[in-house]
Amino acid sequence: MTRAEALFALIGVVVGFGAGWGSIRLVSARSDAAPPEDVVTPGTAVDSGGDGDGAAIADPAMVANANLVESLRGCSQRLARLTDDESRIEQQLEAERMAEADASQSLQARRRARRDPSPSDWRELASAGTIRYLVPCASFNPTPEVMDRLALAPRDVPAIQSAFTAARDDAWTQIRPLCAAAAGSAATADKLGLDACPQVIFNAEKAADPAAADFAMRAVAAVKAGLTDPSVVPAGDPLGAAFLVLTGVANDAEAKLGSVLGPQDAHTAVYGSGSCGHTFEFNSPGTGSSR
């Protein structure tokens, strides 16, 4: 029961009590009334002993009614205060809900920017000399909760698994020789794999020529932002070549899925919240360390 409902119940009790008590008092007053010749109009004085100073006798029913009116006035005032309090609380709760919704949307926008940078995001990354990309997981085995969140059907899973594997294999074909050169052998590159090899390539190029590494990274980010074409990336530059491939792995997986699931579901399967993928970010030697 809310406070307003409790107060309404209290008013009912007061009204009932007042009415009952008033009735009892009225009956009592009538039973104790003076003989007919002594009956007076309510509110007039009656001679109490012939001295002329008799006090006015109030009608008990009117007194009870006045008390009831006063009680109801007090209940009404308390009800008004409770209503105002509840209104303020509702406004505060609504403001909190709106703030939480805004925070959630802001968080989701930041997550999308990390997983799937827009051209505008890439322009900022190019200015900072930062490379960010998403690599789909080697295996895609989502829980039922993740499937519901992504609005995908169980029959979609094999197609997603196949697309993720194919996109990773295509990228590895190009990254493996670059990693082998940086790591010293193909065997070492194979042990590192697609997820770890970019760090080895980055470290080697940063140590060999920090300025060239910085230029290559800014050039790749500018290409992703649509500001220029891939020809600006120096030919034969290991870091530039690696990042051009890596920033396209997720897009490749999405393209492979598009003909099977449709564009929207393909995009959700790759970039959706809860989908399986790892986001990597590298900062150029001029802006800080990689992570």
Question: What this model shows, in words?
Answer:
There is one protein chain. With 291 residues, the protein is mainly alpha-helical. The longest helix has 56 residues, at 60-115. It contains 10 helices and 2 strands, in the order αααβαααααααβ. A two-stranded antiparallel ribbon has the order 1-2. The chain folds into 2 domains: 3-40 and 53-112, no CATH class; 116-283, no CATH class. The two termini are 56 Å apart. Helices cover 68% and strands 5% of the residues.
SSE inventory with pairings:
Blueprint: H1 3-31, H2 60-115, H3 119-128, E1 130-136, H4 144-150, H5 157-183, H6 186-208, H7 210-224, H8 238-246, H9 249-261, H10 263-271, E2 277-283
Antiparallel strand pairs: 1-2
In short:
The protein is mainly alpha-helical and 291 residues long. The protein is built from 10 helices and 2 strands. Residues 33-55 have low confidence and may be disordered.
Features:
mainly alpha, two-stranded antiparallel sheet, single chain, 291 residues, 10 helices, 2 strands
**End-to-end separation:** 56 Å
Say what oligomer this is.
single chain
The topology string of helices and strands comes to: HHHEHHHHHHHE
Outline the low-pLDDT stretches. Answer: 33-55
The biggest beta sheet reads: 2 strands, antiparallel
Shape: elongated
Counting H and I runs of at least 4 residues, what is the number of helices?
A: 10
